[in-house]
Here is the input.
Amino acid sequence: MSDRLLVLVRHGQSDWNLKNLFTGWKDPDLSELGVSEAKEAGRTLKAQGLTFDVAFTSVLKRAQRTLDLALAEIGQTGLPTKCDLALNERDYGDLSGLNKDDARKKWGEEQVLIWRRSYDVPPPGGESLKDTLARALPYYVQEILPGVLRGERTLVAAHGNSLRALIMVLEKLTPEQILKRELATGAPVIYRLNADSTVASKLDLAA
Here is the structure.
């Protein structure tokens, strides 16, 4: 009996998170705190007695480095890892690189809130959460889930919005519910799945 293990972890704090900038597909590294969070994620998983057969991450440095730091704590450097832009953060388009306060001054607080918190309204030149789900979900169904169901213990290090896509399917959430789901940086969420891909158990290790 395999335990069909799937662990999701949002990357640690990035330099741009620290500076209150819209990041999206831009590629800043982890901040000092982010490095600590990534290492702590690995220690947390090790304390749970977990090891992995395969890992997935985005093409962005902050997610890849989080994965590498966590795996080093577990003692699994060199784990087979697949990187794909399907797991990238939501693309914030014209907002990318802007300070969130400056964006509010330029477009107004209400408009920026709509871009950030609506399900299907994208910022100029960018993606809505619905758009992000449209690329992340097929990748999950085709590339990640089959291995989990075969018993491959799987770790996914990615981003708040791309992970929301996976969580929406796993937990059968509505668009309204997924908008309210916050994911702490560097805090693993451990799922064990049934043979039909539904969730058998969930353990959220957010502090």
Observations:
- The longest strand covers residues 5-10.
- The chain is about 45% helix and 15% strand.
- The chain has one domain: 5-204.
- Strands lie at 5-10, 54-57, 81-83, 154-158, 189-193, 199-204.
